Amino acid sequence: MRHDVQVRLIEEMLGRLDAGTNIDEGGIRRNPISAYTDPDLAKQEWETFFRHHPQIIGLSGDLPEPGSYFTVSDFGVPVIASRLQDGSFVAMVNACRHRGALVVDEERGTARRFTCPFHNWTYDSGGDLVGLPKRDHFGEIDTSCHGLIRLPAVEQHGLLVVHPDPDGVIDVDALLTTEFAEELASWKLDELVVADRDDYDVACNWKLANDTFGETYHFPALHQNTINLGFHGNVSCYETFGRNHRFLLCRRSIDEMRLLPKEQWNIAVATLPAYYLFPNVQLLPTVDGCFFIRIYPQAGNPGRHTSRITFFLRKGVTESSEGAEARAEQEKTLAQLFASIIRDEDYVMGASQQTTANSGAMSEVIYGRNERPLHHYHNTFRTALGMEPLPLVTN
Ligand code: FES
Ligand SMILES: [Fe+2]
Predict the structure, then answer these.
(1) Superfamily for 3-52+188-384?
(2) What residues does 110 pair with on adjacent strands?
(3) Which residues surround ligand 2, an ion (CB under 5 A)?
């Protein structure tokens, strides 16, 4: 992030802290609780935001070297993401061209070849069919046009993006807006390495999981003995960039930073930026790394979702300089703590909200004036599906 923007945002945050104010939408919005339970809506969301929408499936560090690969199947199409020997990123449908079996079962690894377990058809790391047993028995096929089905794949600003439709188009700057993309790039996401991962399968709608990253009103209550010790709740900064946003959580270390000359101000010390990348990614950069969270609905079940959390570290933190190992360990412990808070505190609330939603006992939920990100992305979801935006109630 440009330093002048960092200073502007830190000043904005300090102004709110001193005045005891917060971001303000200027009114409340009421959302029908069916947003979290309606199977038809869930189906529309699945088709529009997942099955037929570009997907951010990882950061460059998920494919650290030529031959690295990983598989994903969270948005309806099984995908192999792979880095070729020339360093480029490609994606293919993880389905054998013989009779459709899953070619790669492992979540990740390094390989020069992918061999289908059913009859051993073999593909190279770019998906070209390079071998099939008993060719003389099998019959004539043109191997050059029976490689794994390639999917559009783009690596930009350190993000790995695929389109589940072979004919789909990926325009990263259009998805993110140029300004937002440039700001993301300034965090040098392409230089991060994977330190740890965690996956949570939770009995709550995918939007409830997203909601938990959209306000700090809950810090002094739900996170009284955890996050609240390191963060000021009820104060934040917020800006939208098209369908995406930047939401700043206020670290208590801002109290010491304000005493330093402005040239030494650092947004990652004063705050924890939470970038929301439409429709389902939360990216939270820190001084030493980044939390990267992908949130997926469970197809056909509006009451369940999966969150996939990857914790990345900057290369310098993990290299063998003096104290680096201890620092990396410390960062990893903090990341595990952060992930466990999401699991044991935030998502526990998500599941209890879902129980209420499923019961039909309540007809709507309310987003307060201080919960601006919730207003923005719920209306963004609705608009993208051709629904009327929720009206702002100002009195
Ligand atoms: S289905 Fe893969 S080799 Fe037959
Ligand atoms: Fe939380």
Answers:
(1) Naphthalene 1,2-dioxygenase Alpha Subunit; Chain A, domain 1 (3.90.380.10)
(2) 68
(3) 346
